[in-house]
Amino acid sequence: MESVIVVIASVVVGLVVGVLSGMLGIGGGTVLVPIFKLGFMLPPIVCTGTSLFVVVLSSVTGAVAHVKNRTCLLKVGLAAGIGGACMSPVGVWLASLSPDWAIMTAASLVILYSSITMLRKALKAPKARKAPGCSVAAVGQVDAQGAAVAEVAPTGTAAPAAESGVLGGEAGAAAPATALPAATRRQVGLGFIIGLVAGILGGYVGVGGGFIMVPLFMTLLKMPMKATSGTSLIAVCILAIPGVITQGMLGNVDWLVGLAIAVGSMPGAVVGARLMDRVPERTLRFLFAGLLGFAAIMLVVDQF
């Protein structure tokens, strides 16, 4: 009976997180780690392992959609993924040697960073206003862990990519208006190095690594903003797998909860994507930035 209750609760949580992901572009790990710790009372290392497992499951759909719609640099994503795959088991190994407080502190810093990023984007975002004869729809680009870059464009006008991030998933993605430039050898090489860093950090805190890849793709690789989300998702699909395998071998993954969360997040993501143009995104970002900040603080308080 207890297992049934846990499964039902996990599906409901996945549904709620999926809706928020579809509407805001928040990633799985930044939300799931505090939920697993504060709500499910899982040990810190199990929180990160289970979160990484959910991230792998939920990022596949989004990565496939980006490849089909050509809203990514495939070679860079593959290079970053391979680099990350080499180092994510190292991150898991370091987490297994770390005390609980160190893991939760690191996770809290990542979540707080996501909160600040979302708050800054909310402050910069213009207030959506309906023009005569047309509605306004939010068009967002999402990384694998949580930082979304949203633009407001009139319905029917060309936008970089009409996509909705879903814990890494997609709903209703449209083809890009212009083709992306081919990746250079320098970009591929730097992508591999960026993947090495993201692999260690993602494996340690269980958030996939998108939080570090997206800004580095834009600053070091000069990658178009519309390509960062898909490229990051491709890398996450690859780099997180060895980390999940390692966590599983160490007994740090709650497979039942992880599967139930993933099942719930899929329909929730579709619902959230459809609500994007009905709910004021700017207001939601302010609220969710506050929620993430509160969760980060509570993780530290709960641990100590």
Summary of the model, kept short:
This protein has 304 residues and is mostly helical. It has helices at 2-24, 28-39, 44-69, 74-97, 100-124, 185-205, 210-219, 225-249, 255-275, 281-303, and strands spanning 136-142, 148-154. The chain has a two-stranded antiparallel sheet with strand order 1-2.
Write up what this structure looks like.
With 304 residues, the chain is mainly alpha-helical. It has helices spanning 2-24, 28-39, 44-69, 74-97, 100-124, 185-205, 210-219, 225-249, 255-275, 281-303, and strands at residues 136-142, 148-154. Strand 1 and strand 2 (148-154) form a beta hairpin. The protein is globular, with a radius of gyration of 18 Å. The chain starts with a helix and ends with a helix. Mean pLDDT is 76; it is low at 130-166 and 168-177.
